[in-house]
Each structure stands twice: as structure tokens, then as C-alpha cells.
Amino acid sequence: MPVDPNPAGLAAEPSATAREQTRRRIIDVAIDLLERGGRDAITTRAVADAAGLQPPALYRLFGDKEGLLDAVAEHGFTRFLAAKHIDPDPQDPIKELRVGWDIAVEFGLANPALYALMYGEPTRSTVFRIGLELLMQRIRRLAVAGLLRVEEDLAAQIIHASARGAVLTWLSLPEPQRNPALLLALREAMITAVTTQEPAVQEQGPAGAARALRAALPDQNALSHAEQRLLTEWLDRLSA
Fold it and tell me: Which Gene3D superfamilies does the record cross-reference, listed alphabetically (predicted)?
């Protein structure tokens, strides 16, 4: 006589694959509700009903509604990064910055509610941090090439603010008033604020930058005499 493997009639624990499939289905349903009705449309009851589940299933997978929203935002960042084509060694870092800005704005215009959720408040998403690291790599390449006009963190803030402002302004306009020239003007204003068309240092690498800074030292008064001597010694070493 065969032995009943589940004599108590307990529900079997779902496999990791089934759990991930359920999690993905819930996120897809939440995104659909978000795009059709905004953030307020995402309630645990509405998501559970649309996914054909009971609310406790959502709590087991996401903890609470905020956990579900975090998962939706992270999925959005994953989609956004998948749309990017990162050139590890771009020949023109300013062109690369333009292309990256265009991709960010196009994603926001195509996914307005998801974009608002992703960028409407600080996020703890690991994928968001990866995206920020990629942006900082772009900015660092500009700095190494002598093309960065402002400090690196400020450059990142300007780029983010201009892209978000472009998306939100475009979406707030009546459709007949949406002129593509607006996006072009905002992008070029960002480029002008962040970059300089002529490299500040013609010779790339630390030696050229050190020589340029060494030549400018006599004209500054921010450092004490001792600090200036020490910095001069360091720059002389880097220039060699």
C-alpha cells in the first residue's frame, strides 16, 4: 500500500521557480494598474484580484505595499538599464552623454507612471545604484578627457535634474503644444552646463593635468605657502 507523502493534507511549498514566476506576475499586474490608474490604483486587494491570488500571497513575497512598490521600481530600473547600450571605451564622451540623456528621457516618456515611481522619491534599489555608477563612469570619462566644466557630483545632479524636468514638463503639456525642440534645447542646456567643448587639458592622463595645475598655482591664493610647496612637489612627481 503506497504511503501518503502528505498525510496532513498541507499545501506543498512552492518551488523557487514557481515563486519567482508568481512574483513576476504580481509585478506585471502592478505595473499595468500603475500605468492605467497611477500609484493610488496599486492596493493589495486590487493587485491580488488582478493576479488571481489572495492578499496573503503578496505579503509573503513583498512584505507590504511599500515592498511591492519598491519591487516595481526596481523592475523599472532593470528595464531601463537593459535599454542602454554602454560603450566601455567611447571615442566621443560628450556624444555618449547626449545618447544616455536621450535614452533616459525616451524611457520616461514611454513609461510615465513607472518613471514617476522610480524617481519620485529616494530609492534603495540596488539596480538604481548600478545605474548611478554607470552615469558616474560617463562623468569620470569626461573629467579624464578634460571636458568636465563642474565637479563630478554636481554634474550628476544637473544631468538627473534636466532629464526629470524634461520628462515632467513634456508630460504636463497638452499634446498639441509638445514641441520636440523643447527636449533638444533642454539637452543642449545640460551639455553646456556640464561640459566644455575644448578640453581644459590637451594631454590626457595625470601628467598633463598635473602640468596644467602646476602652471596655474602661482595665480591662486587659496593655499598657504606650505600647502602650495607640498602640492607643487606632488605635481612635479606626477608630471615626470
Answer: Tetracycline Repressor, domain 2 (1.10.357.10)
